[in-house]
Amino acid sequence: MANLLVTGGAGFIGGNFVHYWNTHHPEDRVIVLDVLTYAGNRSTLEGAPNAELVVGDIRDTALVEGLLSERDIDTIVHFAAESHVDRSITGPDAFIDTNILGTNSLLKAARAVWLAGDGIGHRFHHISTDEVFGSLGPNDPAFSETTPYAPNSPYSASKAASDHLVRAYHHTFGLEVTTSNCSNNYGPFQYPEKLIPLFLLNALHGRELPIYGDGMNVRDWLHVEDHCRGIEACLTNGQPGETYNIGGGAELPNMTVVDTICTEVDRAFAEIDGLADRYPDAPAARGEATANLKTFVADRAGHDRRYAIDETKARSELDYVPRHGFEQGLRQTLQWYLDKEHWWRPLLEG
Asked: What residue stretches are annotated with the NAD(P)-binding domain (predicted)?
């Protein structure tokens, strides 16, 4: 039996990981450490019986040391981060505090507890992003684990710094670490400030779908369950000191994503009885096209043009292969938001 500390486990990706681990490793104990900012939600953890929530800050090194010692933690899975690029542009300080200082605090605590005396078996897994690699041209090869870092936003710069700290604690102190750099996640429990849940909920309420610039910025889309499987593979098969790119195999322009959202919303209203009564402000409730809500807005400052993931290393060394096609995954995601209004409704009203 393993004892995991999952930081940021009441957030989007961390919460999905807790549910995934609870289902696939029910004998393990999971301690969730989350400060419950706007993106953390207690209700995300409902239905995960082996998970215990501790409300606290990863920057509280003494708290983390106590948890590691008292709960016999042997694995840290570090999700906790400020992650919204727009927020990093208007307020970068929170990203420095959480993503850099918070990661350093966790590493200090892990070193103090795990490397004391003769040391104990352990793993510190750090979740990062493809944004640390910067922007690709249309014909550039996809990001690999050897692509030089070139972050272009305060968010990606703070994540790049945290990646370097994790690497340094391995090479300097011998901490057993792995890092995964993922592409754009989507799926259940995602806070509605990110593109897919924002546009899904805007479509249901008849609100504009604001598209940055020309809508042709390209991202690789990764269903969060596939990401959880990739993290599991890193923990079970990953080699200490190594990094692994986890992608979804769905490199798409934002406009294609938006058009797919519109198509799926229109389909749902045509096929699901009572949906028009629940969301009368949606164009689809009147038989009109959701695409009529599309509008173009000024591009975001420093908006990277293209990201793409080369996941060859994860496939060959970890046996990782994404299982969700984008259209299937998006349809499942839309259905989840339709079924879980009790989860997202308070976020819109808060």
From this structure: 5-333
